[in-house]
Specification:
Distance between the termini: 47 Å
Helix content: 40-55%
Oligomer: single chain
Largest sheet: 7 strands, parallel
Number of helices: 8
Shape: globular
Amino acid sequence: MSKRTAVVTGASSGIGAATVRQLAAAGFRVVLTARRAERIEELAAELRRERHDATAHALDVTDRAAVDAFAASLGGCEVLVNNAGGALGTDPVAQGDPADWRAMYEVNVLGVLHMTQALLPALTRSGDGTVVVLTSTAGHGTYEGGAGYVAAKHGAHVLAETLRLELCGEPVRVIEIAPGMVRTEEFSLARFRGDEAKAAKVYEGVAEPLTAEDVAETVAWAVTRPSHVNVDLLLLRPRAQASNTKVHRER
């Protein structure tokens, strides 16, 4: 296991950083990618102090030329975790900003496409590759004010589902993990453009939303199943959330 390489995108914080820690603990050589070089360098250094094999590579998954250059420099790869993503705004369709929609599509869908296309040859050559796509329960059910993000995550879901069909018979698994309400330090804050009050309100009254560690543990569990076992799709929600629109909030 120590020689197996796992690439994680969006590894500078939240679910990505937690996933890196989980996969390192499971014995993988982890390659951290994100736009914020300083953060991933710090995390990689922390992991190396703990005697894990970790390297950092600054990367914007929406930049195809940069992704191709990264793939060419990587060598072998057994696991790709497509985690980079995010939401912008909660405008209704009638007032939605096309620039926000485009930005969400670029990172949540085309970013996954770029990374998967670039690393698929290495994943296939490994004889036991795994592609993980972190989507969202938003990719499986819509809600008011979320159309742009929902559309992007539906796109990522369909990409994963179609790839699984197209790779049938090849030595590559395609796993989709779709979390619901996860409280991380940045997701809602970015969605509300730094408005801390609005970001906090998302989780108001919810005793125990999911944590980044909850999702990361799920990713690591799915990736470390025996090679013949494919976790096609796993939806993950806190107990307090029955659907995208039904959440128990304590008063």
